[in-house]
Amino acid sequence: MLDQWLYIGIFLGISLFLPAVAIFLASLLSPKKPNAIKNSVYECGVETRGETWVQFHVQYYIYALMFMIFDVETVFLYPFAVAYGQLTLFAVVEAIIFVTILLGGFVYTWKKGNLTWQ
């Protein structure tokens, strides 16, 4: 059993070492020629005017959360779709319960009015 943990430790060490070396080499070898244009704030190709810290509506975050919820839902349901012919009744009922819970949250968010664009 200790032999298995050794492989995990080696893999973990390599996975931490390689990105650190890449970041170090990039900082060592990259050209460093700062000027006023490179150090200026750049946002979507438009030069900023005034205050750069602007508050956004919470609506954008709710949309992002809803997107993430349904994106993760598709990732969880993909194995069910791939192995649908081999699933037992318990697994199918479990997937239906999962989708029902998510649809309940979606209907709740919709009825609360959080999905109306303002």
Structure, explained:
The chain has helices spanning 2-29, 36-39, 58-82, 89-112, and strands at residues 42-43, 46-47. It is mainly alpha-helical and 118 residues long. It has one domain: Up-down Bundle (Methane Monooxygenase Hydroxylase, Chain G, domain 1), CATH 1.20.58. The chain has a two-stranded antiparallel sheet with strand order 1-2. The longest helix is centred in the first third of the chain and has 28 residues, at 2-29. 0% of the residues are buried. The model has no long low-confidence stretch (mean pLDDT 84).
How many β-strands, per DSSP? 2
What CATH architecture do you see? Up-down Bundle
General form: flat
User: Strands across the major sheet, in which order?
Assistant: 1-2
With helices defined by DSSP (H or I, 4 residues minimum), what is the helix count?
4
Radius of gyration over all CA atoms, rounded: 24 Å
Low-confidence stretches: none
- State the helical fraction: 55-70%
Overall pLDDT: 84
Summary, kept brief:
The protein is mainly alpha-helical.
Task: Write the topology of this structure.
Elements (H helix, E strand, L loop, with lengths): L1 H28 L6 H4 L2 E2 L2 E2 L10 H25 L6 H24 L6
Helix pairs in contact: 3-4
Task: Please supply descriptive tags for the structure shown above.
118 residues; mainly alpha; Methane Monooxygenase Hydroxylase, Chain G, domain 1; two-stranded antiparallel ribbon; 4 helices; 69% helix
